[in-house]
Description:
By secondary structure, this protein is an alpha+beta fold.
Amino acid sequence: MTDIPRDKTFDCSLALLTNGYRFISERCERNGADLFLTRMMLRPAVCVRGEDAARMFYHPDRFSRKLAMPPQTLMSLQDIGSVQQLKGDAHRHRKQMFMSLMKPESIRRLGDLFEEKWRARVKFWQASGTQVTLHHEVEDLLCRAVCEWTGIRLSEAEAPRRAREFSAMIDGAGAIGPRNWMGLALRHRTERWAQKLINDVRHSPLSRAERSPLETIALYRDENGEALSTETAAVELVNILRPTVAVGRFITFAALALHTYPEYRDRLREGGDEWREMFTQEVRRYYPFFPLVAGNAMEDIEWQGHHIPRGTWVMLDMHGTNHDPRSWKDPHTFRPERFKNWKGNAFSLIPQGAGGFDDGHRCPGEWITIELIKRALHMLVSGMEYQVPPQDLTVRLSRLPAIPESRFIISQIREPH
Length: 417
């Protein structure tokens, strides 16, 4: 890889933690290329950015996710044996299990559950008269909605605990130290709970003619006709629940955008689904979610005149690609109008991955994410009234994952007149 620009820093692990979401793009600019060679945790790594890099990285069966993430991140977000760790036919077969859950009517049902629970919570907020932290409240609502949608019954006492567990996994994924340790400890507890749910389903008759998502996972058979181990099935169940709770970060950023750019409130209220879609996509593009994705090359790759040998650890800059001026005019300006008549591009807008859903590693829950953000926008502009008291709304791009410092506090909440 002698033809690839080499970063001067011996090992960039600390620089990644310090610069966060800006790390790859800043060093690409410094090195005058869309890729550079460095070390992460003393391991050689090639970092890439941009739409063309996403096309290269998400080419089917070109990269393996196995052992491509730091252990503490893998254990917080996916765990060993998950669909993201598979490749080839095994990956495609299990991916279809997740895709079968993404029918439009099923996604609408999850959106309905989320909106119903939010409306009920508005009444409670109004009656209590206290200010609330929107981020934590939305995570709780999402947890309750996705569990009910999946076929899991949560008691009133259990729901907040599960929401906190999922939240800790997400918040600890990009950290080293206590924040990560807490997420890992709670993940183990959550997986024991999920394993019991899987075993209960396997020893009980089906709840209805159409399988619930919980039943779909528990009774899934792989490409060889074998059932998943209880542990692996529990991992995949958590890999539906936790990412749905993670949508709370996008919703918190959507609320921040409405507060920062209040001129869009009337357009969202009057413009219907078209404006909610445009605003949602701009929230997903503009605000930080995943900083990067990593993979190990399964073949020799020639890209932009450079040779990337088989076995190379490659990191794709997701946040930087979403802000690449070659793909997005004024990329650091929040402008939902850019998505009017947008034809779609699976490699320039990549907050949750790129490429195809069926044959690649793109997150199958992306449609759920969009639906839930749109429902939240409807509630924020038409389903409630509230005030935003003084608070620290700073978003530090050095924090992984990023979130407003105050988690967005609201007060004087009431139903709309």
